Each structure stands twice: as structure tokens, then as C-alpha cells.
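Hi Y.,

Following your request, here is the sequence exactly as I used it, all 218 residues.
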Amino acid sequence: NGLITADVKMNGHMSSIEKKQYEKFEASGSLSITDMNYQSKTLNYPAKIDKLNLNFTPKYVELKELDAKLGKSDFKLDGKIENFLQYALKDSLLIGSFNLKSSLIDLNQFMAEDNTKPKTAAAADTTPMNVIAVPSNLNVQLNAGISKMLYDNLDITAISGSIKIKNSSVKLDNLKMDLKDLDGSMALTGVYNTQNIKKPSVDFDIDIADFDISKTYK
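Below is the corresponding structure, written out as C-alpha cells. Let me know if you'd prefer a different format.
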């Protein structure tokens, strides 16, 4: 359920977009979504778009505002999307630059196994989490400001820095964070790569300050 308000006009050939002849393709108008809820048997958590506002031009789409929730996590985004028509019509590469703000991102929820299957407490403790696959058709820069993130048994706060998603990889550029459970802070620079989903790789420089040795060991 929800409300979609659209006033968009498009006229031209897809070949003009592919050749970057934007002056030959007319695209203008706006699209907004409010109070949209989405549920599916294949999604283990509800998705809600409180607000979405897009402004269209032939060359790019301005994401004026996105306020959404995926399960326990909330996301606020603004920025610019290039190659939007190719992405929407031909599943081509999506290029974008965004500012991301969130009060909570629960990564455990996104990595959890299929919780419809019964399992014992012991099995839950020993079964590994699934690998997070990074989409191959994204070239996106995120300037992040996240108040709190849950990952495994860690409570991470005050996250800031640059995140770039490209070629099925996530590159972190001096991503800073406080780790409440370890009484310290950490900064990450490096790459998480899932080009080979069966053998994902991690290559990071880690700058650690003030970790409590006993708490970190545990």
C-alpha cells in the first residue's frame, strides 16, 4: 500500500541515451512516493518507504529525498543518479553519488539464515552467516553518517567516512567508528570483494585506538 504521485514526460530513442546524446532525448518531471509498505514471502522483514522524491532530466535523476526502513534499519539518502534509464530499461550499470544517514543499520538481520526452518540453539551458534553479495551493476559513492550499526555481537557507533561500491566490491576510505563493547575506536581503509562469491576477499588497513585487551579477546 502507499501513494505514488507522478508527473513525468519522456520522449526519444534509447540509442540517444546510449550515445550520451542527451539533447535528443526529452525527460522531465517528478515522481514521489509516500507511506508505501512492501512485504513478500521471499523477504524476511518488512520494507517501508516513508518518502521518496525524484526529479528527472535526460542526463540524470536527482534523488531529492529518500526516507526508508528495511526491517529494523532506517536509511535517509539524497544525491544524483546517472544512467538511470539504461539501468531501469536494460539493467545496465547504475552510477550515483549519495549522502547516507541512518540512526540504525542492523547487518545481522540482512545476513541471517532462513529463519523459517526450525533449529536448535546449538545449531544457531555454530552455523555461519551468509556472505553479503555486492551487486555488480552498481558504481555508487556513499558519504556515510551512521549513528549505530549492529554486526554479529558488536555495537558500533558514530560511523563516518566514504564508501564506494563498484565491480562487486565495497571500498572503504578512512571509515571511522567507535566500538562501545571494546572501549575503543577504529578506522578502516580497504576493499571487501565478492567478484567470486564462493571466495570473497578482504584487504584492509586497520587503525585501532584504545581497545580493551580483555574485552577484545572475549
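Helices lie at 14-18, 84-90, 107-111, 121-126, 213-217.

Thanks again,
Q.
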